[in-house]
Specification:
The complex is a heterodimer of chains A (115) and B (114).
Chain A (H helix, E strand, L loop, with lengths): L3 E4 L2 E4 L5 E7 L5 E7 L5 E8 L2 E5 L6 E7 L2 E6 L8 E8 L10 E2 L3 E5 L1
Parallel strand pairs in A: 2-11
Antiparallel strand pairs in A: 1-3, 3-8, 4-5, 4-9, 5-6, 7-8, 9-10, 9-11
Chain B lengths: L2 E3 L4 E5 L4 E3 L2 E3 L4 E8 L5 E7 L5 E3 L5 E5 L4 E6 L8 E9 L7 E2 L3 E6 L1
Parallel strand pairs in B: 2-12
Antiparallel strand pairs in B: 1-4, 3-9, 5-6, 5-10, 7-8, 8-9, 10-11, 10-12
The chains are: A mainly beta (115), B mainly beta (114).
């Protein structure tokens, strides 16, 4: 059973298009995240939702819009794709940690290539 | 804001050699610390974590890490590596005051030659 799953695994698209990536977790966690890993493997958090509420919103272009329909799902919609958006996008989930900290479980990643 | 630096970008070693990867963080308060591993073509997996208590923590696959508070360091070690340890290793930190915000280091690519 896959704990954190993402679709699609690969996404190749043209500049200017709009695309979505979906994420689902079956771990019963209440917090989900999106990370971007660039070509140099540098990982940076983009967004985090706790119980469908946005709790982390890093400096990300407005073209990126996360949506969490329920605790188990967090989708990422990207408008007007640019070349620089090419990266691997990882979804993750955890229990909400507050001040205690919790392990985050990562999905397999979605490799986005913008041509 | 916190930051994490990993000193080695690439490490090449032979099987049975010992491995030590450096990790230093910058943050004024107390933190939780993690090491994640990313095998080729796979997602990130947790190797080990430190929240409190014994500063020497043991993780999966024979890895361990030591938290030295005075040096703001959390170095990863393995006494004898195997070819299957070839992977990218990431150190990460969250402030205890904001336990969800995970900040990663730049990663260290480890290649173990058979």
């Amino acid at each position: 059973d896959t704990a954190v799953s993402q679709t699609p695994k690969y996404l190749v698209t043209q500049m200017g298009n709009d695309k979505s990536i979906k994420c689902e977790q079956n771990l019963g966690h209440d917090t989900m995240y999106w990370y971007k890993q660039d070509s140099k493997k540098f990982l940076k958090i983009m967004f985090s939702y706790n119980n469908k509420e946005l709790i982390i919103n890093e400096t990300v272009p407005n073209r990126f819009s996360p949506k969490s329909p329920d605790k188990a799902h967090l989708n990422l919609h990207i408008n007007s794709l640019e070349l620089g958006d090419s990266a691997v996008y990882f979804c993750a989930s955890s229990r909400f940690s507050g001040s205690t900290g919790n392990e985050q479980f990562f999905g397999p990643g979605t490799r986005l290539t913008v041509l | 804001a916190q930051s994490v630096s990993q000193h080695n970008h690439h490490v090449i070693l032979s099987e049975a050699a010992s491995l030590e990867l450096g990790c230093n963080y910058s943050y004024g308060g107390t933190v939780n610390l993690f090491w994640y591993v990313q095998y080729p073509g796979q997602h990130l997996q947790l190797l080990l974590k430190y929240f409190s208590g014994d500063p020497l923590v043991k993780g999966i696959k024979g890895f361990e890490a030591e938290f030295i508070k005075s040096k703001f360091s959390f170095n990863l070690r393995k006494p004898s590596v195997q070819w299957s340890d070839t992977a990218e290793y990431f150190c990460a930190v969250t402030p205890k005051a904001a336990g969800n915000k995970l900040t990663f280091g730049g990663g260290t690519r480890v290649l173990v030659k058979p």
